[in-house]
Amino acid sequence: MKYRNLGKSLVAGLAITTSGSAIAAGSAVEELLKALYQNGTIDKATYELVQQAAKAEDAQNREQIREISVAESKKVAGDVVAKVKASKPDVKLGGRIQLDAGSVSEDNMDHNSGTEIRRARLFAKGDLHKDWGFKLQYDFVSKGDNTNGIQDAYLDYKPLKIRIGHAKEPFSLQNMTSSKYTTFIERGLPHVFAEGRNIGIQTVRNGENWMIAGGIFGDGRDGSEGGENNEGWGAAARATIAPIHADGETLHLGTSLSYRNIGGDHTLQFKERPEAHITDTEIVDTTTFDANSVTRGVLEAAYINGPFHVQGEYYRTSVERQLAGRKDVTFSGYYAEAGLFLTNDTVNYKASKGSYSKVTPSGENGAWQIAARFSSLDLTDEDINGGTAESLTFGLNWFATSNIRFSANYVNVLDVDGGPTAGDEPSAFTFRSQVEF
Amino acid sequence: MKYRNLGKSLVAGLAITTSGSAIAAGSAVEELLKALYQNGTIDKATYELVQQAAKAEDAQNREQIREISVAESKKVAGDVVAKVKASKPDVKLGGRIQLDAGSVSEDNMDHNSGTEIRRARLFAKGDLHKDWGFKLQYDFVSKGDNTNGIQDAYLDYKPLKIRIGHAKEPFSLQNMTSSKYTTFIERGLPHVFAEGRNIGIQTVRNGENWMIAGGIFGDGRDGSEGGENNEGWGAAARATIAPIHADGETLHLGTSLSYRNIGGDHTLQFKERPEAHITDTEIVDTTTFDANSVTRGVLEAAYINGPFHVQGEYYRTSVERQLAGRKDVTFSGYYAEAGLFLTNDTVNYKASKGSYSKVTPSGENGAWQIAARFSSLDLTDEDINGGTAESLTFGLNWFATSNIRFSANYVNVLDVDGGPTAGDEPSAFTFRSQVEF
Amino acid sequence: MKYRNLGKSLVAGLAITTSGSAIAAGSAVEELLKALYQNGTIDKATYELVQQAAKAEDAQNREQIREISVAESKKVAGDVVAKVKASKPDVKLGGRIQLDAGSVSEDNMDHNSGTEIRRARLFAKGDLHKDWGFKLQYDFVSKGDNTNGIQDAYLDYKPLKIRIGHAKEPFSLQNMTSSKYTTFIERGLPHVFAEGRNIGIQTVRNGENWMIAGGIFGDGRDGSEGGENNEGWGAAARATIAPIHADGETLHLGTSLSYRNIGGDHTLQFKERPEAHITDTEIVDTTTFDANSVTRGVLEAAYINGPFHVQGEYYRTSVERQLAGRKDVTFSGYYAEAGLFLTNDTVNYKASKGSYSKVTPSGENGAWQIAARFSSLDLTDEDINGGTAESLTFGLNWFATSNIRFSANYVNVLDVDGGPTAGDEPSAFTFRSQVEF
Which chains touch A (3 or more CB pairs under 8 A)? Predict the structure, then answer.
C-alpha cells in the first residue's frame, strides 16, 4: 500500500523531470531520493542536501560541456583557417585607374582640352616563404615599347630590407608619395628633377619617426640597345626624421642626394608641362644638351596639425658637361603647398617611410580637402635657356572612400620667362576620378 | 552473506555499465538501485520507474549536449567565415582568349589566310565598400601605344547607376553585346558606325523588361596630343523595351541616337573588312574626309522563341562637313540574322540591359546553334565614294560549356560596288576557339 | 541524532563535490551513497563498487561529450570549407620577373654593359568545369605591337590532352624547359633554330618515363597583315624516353623534328647574340635570305645522377630555297653542358614532359649549383655566310627558395669565323635575380 503511493509519486516526479529542459543529470537520483525519503530510509536533511548536490551538478555539467564544445570547435576551426590560408593565392592583384578631363586656356601656344586615362595600372604582389616578397606593376598607359609600361618590378629580402629590381630611386617627398596620394592632380614643377625608377639594389633602415634609404641603380628598363656607350648608372640616398610626431601633430624634415653618371649618348633634357597633363605642350624645356653627370639635392619640410598641413621642397641640380668648353650648369626649383580638411580628417603621413599614404575618411560622407600650391622652376643657366616658370594651383579633393577619390584643380601659370615658349602662360581646369584597388 | 551476494551482482552490473557506449548518466544510480532493490530497501515499482528516469535522462542529456555543441561550433564557424571573407581579395581576375584561323579566297585584291589571336583580354573588377565598383580591362591584342589596348576602365557609383570612365557609348544591339556572345565570329558590316569606347560619364535606368541609358563622352584614351584643335566630344543614348518577355518568348525593340562633334584635325573615315578579320584588306573605305560632326541613329528589333531567334538593325549616319562647299553626306546599313539551336537551348537575352549574355548549355554535350546573316552597307554619297557591300554569312556554333565556345563561319561577300576595291568580292571560311574566364 | 551527524557529513561532502572540476555526474549519487552507507542501508562493498561505477561514468561521459562536440564541429567546419572553396576564384594569377645586369667586354664590335628587365610576365590560368583548362600569359618586356608580348594563350581539352592556341611548338630540350629553369641565364647558341610559339593545335601522350607530342601550327600571333602571300604553316613533333629513371639516376633520350613552310615574303633569317642578352650585337647573322621551307631536327641526351647532370643536343636545319638557282643550305649546332649541386639537391627532370622543372632546395640555405657549357653554331653554307661561333660559359646558381633564384654567368666567345662580325669574340659577366610566383 505504501509502495503503491510511492509508485504514484514517482510517476508524477518522473513526468516533471523528463519535461525539464535542464540537463537532468540528477533526475534519476531525484526519483530514488524521493523514494528513499518517503519510505524513511533517509531523513529530510539528507534528502534536501542531496537535492542541492544534484542541482549543483546540473549547472557544473552544463558549464563543463560548453567548455569541451568550445575547445573542440576551436581546434576544428583552427584546421579550417589553416586549410583556407594554404589554399589562398599568395599573389594579391591590385591597381589604380586615374581618369582625367581638362580644359586648358590657349595662350601663345596651343594647349588643348579633352579627356585622358592618366594611369591604368595593375600589379601583382605577394610574399614568398617568410623572408621574400615581390611586386610587379604595369601601367597600360605608356608609349613606345611595351617595356616602358613596367613600373615596380622587384623582389625584396625582408630580413635585411634589401630591394633588388626596378623601383623608385629614393628622392624627394612628392616623388616618394604615390601619385594616388599627392595633394594635387599633378606634382609640382620641380618634380622634373626626379629620376624615377631604375633597376638597382637599395636598402632602408627606419625607426618610428625616421628613415634612411639608399641604393645604386642602372639606367632604364632595357639593356643599352645599340649605341657605342655603356648604360649610365647612379646612386641615391634619402633621410627623413619627424622630430615632432604625436597627437595629430607632425613635423617632417628630410633631405635627398642623388648622383648620376650619364651613359649612352651623354645627353640630358629637362622639360615640364604646366601642372596639367592633358596638354602636352611644355612651358619650360632645356632641349637636349651634352652632360657627363648630374648631381641633385633636395631639402624637404612638412608640418601637419590635425586637418591642416603645409609642406615644401627645395631642389638644386648641377650638371657636369661632356663637351669641351661648355660650362657646368645649375638648375633649381621649389614648391610650397598648404592643405586643409573641411571634415574631421588628416593627411596620412608615414614617418617610417617619410611619405604620405592613403587617406581614410573618418565620416560617412567622405573627406573634403582644399589646398593651394606655389611652384617655381628655373631651367636657365649659362648656355642653357630652358626658361623659368612660376605656377599657382588651387585644389579641391573629395575622398569618397579610402579607395575612391575625386579632385578638381585650377592651375594658373603666372610667369614664364625665356625658354622655347617664353611668355606662354596658360591656365587650366582639371578634374580627376580615381579608383584604387 | 546477503551482502556478499550483493557485491557479486554489483561487479557484474558494473562490468556491463562501463562497457556501455551510451552516456551512462544513470549507471551508478543503476548500481545503487540494484543494491537497494536487492536488499529490499525499495520495491520493484520504484526500481523500474527510477530505471526509466535514468533512461530518459540519457536521451535528454545526449540531445542537450548536441545542442550545446552545435551552438558553440556555429559561433566559432562564424568567426572563421568572417576572417576568411576579410582576407579574400575583392578583386576578380577574368578575361577571354579568342583564337582564329581563316582561309580567305583571293579575288581582285589580296586576301590572305592564316591564324591570329583575335582578342586576349585580362580584366580586374570588383566592388569597393558597398556603393562603388570598378573594372579595368586590357586587350593584349592591340597596335601602337600600349594605351590603345585599354578597354573598360571605369568606376561605378551604384546607388545612382552612374559610370565614370572609359566604357562603351550606348549604341546598337550588336555593339552592346560582348564579342564573346555575338552570334557570328564578327559583327555585321554596319558595325562600322559604332563609336566604341570613350572616356565619359553615363547613367542607366531599367526595369524588368526595359532600359534607357545615356551619357556624354570625350574622344579616345589619350589627351589631345599635339595638333592645334581640342579633342572632340559626343553624346549617346539608347532605349530598349521587350513588350513580350515571358515563357521563352521575347520581342525586343530598341533605338540608339548618337551625336559627335569631331575634334582634332576634323576628319573622319569609315572602312570595313569583310566579316572575316583575318584579312586586313578593306572592301569598303571612304578614306579620310573632312567632317565637323556626325549624327547616328539605329533601329533595333529582335524576336526570340525558345531555340529560335531573329534580329535586325538599321543604321543611318549623317556627317556635317567641315570644308566650305562640301555637301553633307549620309551613309546607311543594316543586317538581319536568324539563329536556331539544335539542342534544347536558347540565346540569353537580358531585357534589363537590352543585349545578349552568356549561353549556358542545358545538356552534357553543350549547345549547338546554326545561323545565317545578311549584311548591307552603303558608304557612298555625294563626293564620298566609299562603296557599297552586301555580304552573306552562315555560322555554326558549339557552346561546349558556358566558358568554352567554338565557331565556324562561311562568309560570302555578294557584291561590292564602287569604293577603292570595287568588284572585289572574296569569300572566307573562319574558325574561332574561345575561352572566357 | 544519527541523522544530524549524517547531515553534517553531507554538508562536507557537498562542499567537496561542487568544487570538483570533473563532470560530477556521480556527486549527488555520491552524497546519497554516503548517506545510505552511513545509515547502514547498504554495506561497504556496495558503497565502494557504486563509487567506482560513478567514477567510470565521469570518464565515459567526458569522452562521449567530446566525441559529440568533435562530430558537430566537423560538420559545421565542412560547411565553412565548402563555402570558402565556392567563393575562391578559379583563376590563378602568377608570373615571373627576371632582372639582369651585365658587363660585356668590347671587342671588334660595340658590346655595351648595363641593366635590363629580361622578362616580366603575368599569367592567368585555371580549370573550367572538369574537362577544360586555359592559360593566358603576357610578357611586358616586348617591342612593337602589344600583341608581340603574348606568350601562352591557349585552351586545353584534358580528356584528349589537346591544346588549342598560341603555345610552344614541341622542339628540343632546352627550348621546352622554361627560361626560369634553364641551367644558364641564356640558352645555348643553337636555340636560334627553335621556332618558339605559334597558334595551332597539338596533343601529347605520355607515360611515367616517356612522352610524345606533336601538332600543326600557323605563323605568329597576327593575321597575315598585308603582303600578297598567305601566312606560313608548320608541323612539329618531339619524342622523349628515360630508359633509366629511378633512385635519383636518370638517362634521357629525345628527338625533335620540325617542318615549316615559309609564308609571307618567303624570307628567313637566323641570328644570335652571344649568350649574354644585355648586348644586342649579334655575333652570327645570316641576314635575310630567300626560303621556301625549313626542316629542323634535334637529338637530345641527358644523364642525371644525384647532384650531377650532363646534357647535350645536336641541331640540324635544312632550308629549301625559294629563288631559282639558289642551292639549298644546311646549318647545324650543338651544345654540351654539365652541372653539379654543391648542396644535397638535384635538377628536377620530369620524364612525363621530357623537360626540367623547378628546383626546390632541400636545405635551409637554398641550393648551390656550378655548371659549364660549350656551345657551337654554324650558320655558313653555300651562298649564306652567317658565320660560325663557339662559346664557353661557366655558371653559378643559388636557388634561395623554390621561387627565388640568383645566377652569375661568365660567357666567353671563343671563336667567331665569317659572318658580319667575323673575329668579334667578346666575353661577358652576367647576373640575374629571378622571382617566380
Answer: B, C
Least CB–CB distance from C3: residue in A33, A43, A68: A43
Query: Cβ B50–A73 below 8 Å, yes or no?
Result: no
Q: Which of the pair, C240 or C225, is modelled with greater confidence? A: C240
Residue C18 pLDDT > 60: no
CA–CA dist C6, C287 (Å, integer): 114
Torsion sign, CA atoms B328, B329, B330, B331:
negative
Phi-psi category of C379—alpha, beta or left, where left has phi over 0 and alpha has psi -120 to 50?
alpha
- Give tens-digit pLDDT for A95-154: 999 999 999 998 888 888 899 999 999 999 999 888 999 999 999 999 989 999 999 999
> Do C78 and B74 touch, CB atoms closer than 8 A?
no
Domain that holds residue B212: 92-436
DSSP letters, A32-64, are HHHHHHHTTSS-HHHHHHHHHHHHHHHHHHHHH
pLDDT surpassing 90 at residue A27 = no
> Which residue in the set B83, B149, B229 is minimally distant from A112, CB to CB?
B229
Among A245-259, A360-374, B78-92, C258-272, where is mean pLDDT lowest? B78-92
How far is the alpha carbon of B91 from chain A, nearest alpha carbon, in Å?
A: 7
Identify the pLDDT of residue B59: 76
Chain C residues with CB inside 8 Å of B80's CB?
77, 80
Confidence of residue B84 (pLDDT cuts 50, 70, 90): low
In this structure, what C-alpha cell is assigned to residue C276?
649574354
Least CB-CB distance to B93: which of A6, A93, A114? A93
Which pLDDT score is estimated for C62? 76
Are B69 and B187 found together in one domain?
Answer: no
- Nearest CB partner across the interface for A77, out of B43, B76, B219: B76
Q: Do A119 and A69 fall into the same domain?
A: no
CATH code for position C256 = 2.40.160.10
Q: Report the Cα A226 to chain-centroid distance in Å.
A: 38
- Mean per-residue pLDDT, A188-203: 97
Count CA atoms closer than 13 A to C47's CA, side-chain side: 14
Query: What total of structural domains would you count in chain A?
Result: 2
The residue in chain A having the minimum alpha-carbon distance to the alpha carbon of residue B79 is: A77
What is the Cα–Cα distance from A81 to A91, expressed in whole angstroms?
18
- Hey, are the CB atoms on B53 and A17 less than 8 Å from each other? yes
Interface contact A115-B231, CB threshold 8 A: yes
The answer on B140 and B56 residing in a single domain is no
Q: How far apart are CA B34 and CA B41, in angstroms?
A: 10
Neighbours of chain C (3+ CB pairs under 8 A): A, B
- Domain final position from B84, B101, B127: B84
Tell me the average pLDDT across A212-229: 84
H/E element, A377: strand A367-381
Same domain, C27 and C161: no
The model carries a pTM of 0.85
Chain B residue numbers with beta carbons less than 8 Å from the beta carbon of A36 are: 36, 41-42
Q: Give me the total of CB pairs closer than 8 Å, taking one residue from chain A and one from chain B.
A: 239
Per-residue pLDDT tens digits for C263-281: 888 999 999 999 999 998 9
Cβ A408 vs Cβ A256: under 8 Å:
no
Smallest CA–CA distance from A27 into chain C, residue: C28
Please check whether residues B353 and B314 belong to one and the same domain.
yes
Contacts of A17 in chain B (CB under 8 A): 53, 56-57
Query: Which cell numbers hold the place of B411?
Result: 562568309
pLDDT digits (tens, 9 = 90+) for B108-158: 888 888 999 999 999 999 998 889 999 999 999 999 899 999 999 999 999
Indicate yes or no: CB of B115 within 8 angstroms of CB of C219: yes
CA distance C299 to C10: 95
C123: how many CB neighbours lie within 10 A of its CB?
21
